[in-house]
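User: Sequence for Probable transcriptional regulatory protein I8752_22130 below. Tokens please.
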Amino acid sequence: MAGHSKWANIKRQKAVVDAKKSKTFTQLSRAIIVAARSGVPDPAGNFQLRTAIEKAKVAGIPNDNIERAIAKGAGTFNDNASFEAIRYEGYGPEGVAILIEAFTDNRNRTAADLRVAFSKNGGNLGETGCVSWMFEQKAVCVVQEVVDEEQLLEASLEGGAESYEMTEDEIAEVFTEVANLENLNQTLKDKGFQVTDAELRWIPSNSVEVTDPERARSLFKLIDTLEGLDDVQNVTANFDISEELMAVSIS
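Assistant: Structure tokens for Probable transcriptional regulatory protein I8752_22130:
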């Protein structure tokens, strides 16, 4: 988890917001479609949908786009596109295990795009199950402006959390079981904490240490390429790397 957390932290600090805005809009719109389809198309009764809408609004997606995405998921807006959530698996440089979560309306296109991305960056797309056994899905709440860890601990325990990790100054990630995400999210908010994200995440049970600068660059290029694909929602990998080498490798 450490490697992926460091990677996420550094990426948040990079000034790439404008360049990836259209990509973000595509991702978040598809997340709304799938959430609306997997439960009731009403955010009041669908936590996954409510969370997806909140993220979309923070990203600046217009309300019309959000309503259209909900309608697509509910089946009341027909554009002949049928999206489904699919998980892909593969290996990167140094044998790093990689999980890719995608929302797609064309499995063949998505698989072909992923295969090209892997092959051009020192990895290979694998079969279903080849690396997923090394990951466990957990629910995570990201909390900003944490000034009192003792209060966070108390609120987290009350909300049924299993653990928490301070990832940056005054930013914490609180982990719980998948089924408890909504409860933990609400408890933290009720206790006055600023929860900026509530999501499901794959946590690796082991990690591969990457020490070679060239392999590190190839790995980060692969992850960046995968995340740049329209069909891809999330990429998780089990690498661990020093912050110094990471900073050099992505500069």
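The first strand starts at residue 84 and ends at 91.
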